[in-house]
């Protein structure tokens, strides 16, 4: 279907002589199963065991976890050979068979030549039940399509390559800059959920993509009863609808409609986070390395896993992103801010769980705030996301004055690239410029034929 950044990481895992069984983590419908099936084409045999579709398979793991016995039983049940060194064994929807996660340890210790990947739409809840075999498994994290992946999927590979290779501080040619902003507006409407992007490429009808987003939204709500107590479902439904109204500012339980208290809502919010439907942006002082050393878990903002899904839940009119994206950037700054957060996650180190951070001045009389802080080596980069041209940068200036470890600030806006003293201005579509080092080769692989 589409080239994905994760593809190169999966191939590298396949070819690593010291590989461990792999846990592929991410929200429902971000493309995990498809990515593994694509990798499976590089093996002589590909065996997929979906524990939701094949209930008998779970029973196999309820007895011994001896690899030889497991692959014999699975081979008979699936009627397909499982040969170490020739087969990719894919255990999908493992939340239906949590002991299959424990089995990964024994595959590593007793049958390391067998390639094994486990995934699941609610994997985090299965891990909570049985834990992770520490030191016995590898992990990769997946997210919706990034803007770079979206551009490649929609036929604008050369534009994606031009953005990725562009140097900071050097203005982009105006026609290319304008086209990139138009494609960004398109992305903000369609989003990065693979099925939504596929529908867009097939129909060029945003309403068709919107229907898919609505179906995904319903699927997420249907999942509530799978991981929440019956008494919690009403809180989950409430929080699922409310956070899109609160993006761009610090979260407060008092702003949730209804007579509810933190003790009722906080556990439900945590469930949405574990389901990877929402991501937290935690407050930190930004004074030390690592950046999260002094994180304040009681002070946070929220973004949804996908910017278009967020707007779908809001019921927003997304036509402005097609008709006049510059006007959209000007009037919907919170959407631009959430987009940058989503991009930072997509381009983060896929081998570990990413965490986003923001900063605000801890004084009642001050409203100074930095949207994101990113660690690059021994430096902390403050990032401001501005609607429209965004010429007011008081918070950024204050942060740089009070944080000696931060020498440069980055502004993302609809403006072209420029560099002036300690301000590095980049267009919104250039968030890939902050990609983690481990991602750069994978991003470049998107551009190859």
Protein topology:
Layout (H helix, E strand, L loop, with lengths): L5 H10 L6 E4 L6 H9 L4 E6 L4 H6 L6 H12 L8 E6 L6 H12 L4 E5 L3 H8 L7 E4 L5 H7 L3 H9 L8 H17 L3 H10 L2 H22 L5 H9 L1 H4 L15 H13 L3 E6 L12 E9 L2 H8 L4 H5 L1 H7 L1 H14 L9 E5 L8 E2 L1 E5 L2 E7 L8 H9 L6 E5 L4 E3 L2 E5 L9 H9 L4
Helix pairs in contact: 1-2, 7-8, 10-11, 11-15, 12-14
What is the gyration radius calculated from CA atoms? 22 Å
Proportion of beta-strand residues: 15-25%
Shape: globular
Helical run tally: 20
Count of separate structural domains:
2
Structural class: alpha/beta
Strands in their spatial order, largest beta sheet = 2-3-4-1-5
The largest β sheet comes out as: 5 strands, parallel
What is the straight-line distance between the termini? Answer: 14 Å
Segments where pLDDT lies below 50 for 5+ residues? none
Q: Report the count of strand segments.
A: 14
Domain AAA: 19-151
Domain DUF4143: 222-388
Organism: Candidatus Neptunichlamydia vexilliferae
Protein name: ATP-binding protein
